[in-house]
Structure formats: C-alpha cells, structure tokens
Amino acid sequence: MPGFVGYVLEDPVRAVRLEAGRVLASVPEALMDAGQRARLRAALAEYRAAQRMDADRAEAHLRLGTLYMQQQQLARAEGEFERAREIDPRFIPAYVNLADLRRMQGRDADGEAVLREALEIAPGDGDVRHALGLLLVRRKRLSEALRELERAAALRPELPRYSYVLAVALHSAGDGQRALRVLRDARTRHPADREIRAFLAELEQGR
After folding, report:
1. What is the pLDDT of residues 44-54, one digit of tens each?
2. For residue 35, what are the domain limits?
3. For residues 57 and 63, is the Cβ–Cβ distance under 8 A?
C-alpha cells in the first residue's frame, strides 16, 4: 500500500479518514504492513461508530451493509440490509443491495423475489429494473431480461451504462439493428462515453 494511503488514514479531517477507511475496506490485509493494518482497522472502527450514531436511519445500515459486503462478511451485511428494510420498508437501495448480496451467495432466485418486492413498492425505479434485468440474464431468461433492461434505460437515460448494457444484451440476442439504435441514441446524449463509442464503432464496422 502506498505511503500516501497510510497517511490519509490518519488525516486530521475526520471525513477524510472515514472515506479512506470505506474505500480501502476491501484491500487484503496481507498487502499491508503492521502499521497500515492498524491504521485501517482504526479508520474502519471509526466509520462503523459514525454509522451507529445514526442507527435509527436506514441509510446508516445500508452503509454498514455495503462495508461488510466489501469485507466478504456476508451474514453481517445481510443483517444490516434487513435492518434498513425494517426501519424504512420503502427504502429501495436496501432491496437492490440485498439482491446483490444474494447474487454473491449464489441465491439469485431469492434475489429475484427481493427485487420483485421492490417493484411492488416502486415500479418506476430504473435501478431496480436494471438489477432485475441483469439477474434474469444470469438466469438465462433473456426475453424477460431485455424487457427489464429496456425499461431501465428508458427510466434512467442519464446513465450511459444502462444503455450500453441494453445494447450488449440486444446484440447477444441477435438483434443488432436495435442495438445500433440504442447506441446511437445513447451517443447523442453521452458523446464522451468510451464504452458506447467503442461498441458502436465495433457494430458499425461489422455491418
């Protein structure tokens, strides 16, 4: 770990220390020396304590759950996401993150149930639609996946990644013409996006 990283873990500004701990949480301790491990553990303890100060808020439990996911502490992450849903049953990020946890556990069927529960609450949430689309791709239900990915891209046109993923899925399904249309529309909105430009160039050259 570069010396600069160890330095930011001891930054006098608390917000900097907390962010550094959060970002570095997934770094294997084997890559650190004893001093760096101690500083990271201290920063993470401070981060967890800061979230517990807001234990009555779903957002705090979401942040803790995300931290535990980074550290592969999946049972603890699950508990935090479930607690977030208990506090605020309409807090959609808790559902999306819980479904992603199910993916990591090899439990996509359960993850699908979580996302469909979220859609009952917020049918117009593009992030849920996108997550469900990716899940359905993994479950090899491509026609259903395409519908969800298309809805997600339409609901969140400001996110170039959603259009890119839709185009990839369309191309994989053998619908190159629709993939081209999606990419051209997305290029108009996001002319600097490298993924969209590169994939569009590839498809146009292959015509």
Report:
1. 888 899 999 99
2. 1-53
3. no
